[in-house]
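Input chain follows. Return structure tokens only.
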Amino acid sequence: MTAVTQELRDAARQVVDDQGLAADEQATWSLVAELGWLMLEIPEDDGGLGLDLAAACALHLELGRGLASVPFAAALLAIDAVAQSSLQERADLLARLGSGEDYIATPLAEPALDFRDGRLSGTARAVPAADRARDLLLWSAADDCLALVPAAAQGLAIEPANTWDDTRRLYDLRLDGVAPRCVLATGAAAAAMLRRLRARRDFALAAEAVGGSAALLERTVAYLGERAQFGRPLAMFQALKHRCADLKAQVEAAHALLDDGLARVADAGPDGDIAAAEHAGLAAKLLANSTYTAVVEESLQLHGGIGMTEEHECHLFLKRALLDEHLGRGRDAYARLLAAAHGGD
């Protein structure tokens, strides 16, 4: 981690801690825009900060620690897609997106869309804050089209998704012959851009999961130090110490794999091997999500009865972790894709 990235992460932690757990979406969005976080990966030639994916993931990690409701990951994915495009309005659009004036919503799960005769039909799920987006970044299931679709387009229905995770607002989209406002890429060019987008989405989701698991484990250890049983703090019981130590090792392993993957992507440069970046993102997402789930399940037990109550914060982390398993390429896809890459079944 570079000094700049570490400073950025330290500043982000202070901001997220000040905002509090699962802070208000609109208030956090205004702060994110004011701090210039949306400009993070916009090239310097376009007026941005020109930082790399590792810097973005430092912010994703801290936002994950605070169960932030702000659609930061979706916004950065759209910004990167616009930055990689050759749109005539590219510079102006990047300026508006970087300032937070405009927001393009992007699905955090794979859309089931068909692109035919210049129109999109099908469904897209897990789209953060789609109700306040100007445009939607969508792509076809065949990877032959990547386009911006107006949120007010005829034939488009935006419906709130009924999920357990109340810390963020996700929407499902239904498209019936919707014409894009502009097409960013088609054919092989679209497939290449989508490989980059998916890898970046995997890293962002992995970073959020690492942040969430680390934060909950810290809260659990603090609780064990405060709660007494038989006249002794629970943290003094050896069996509980060992359980927490095992969880800490898992969190550190997930964080290490994330950092290693980001370092490999950075070393490869902007024109590096996309297959290597995809593989690193797959591995980071798989381990981070399985670790997050393990931490929340153990933390619920370590908190005892209070951890099962709706008033306690444990259930917020549990719902976030369980939903995150289904985001990205799908719950079962990561292990299967990694096995295939290594010659497995």
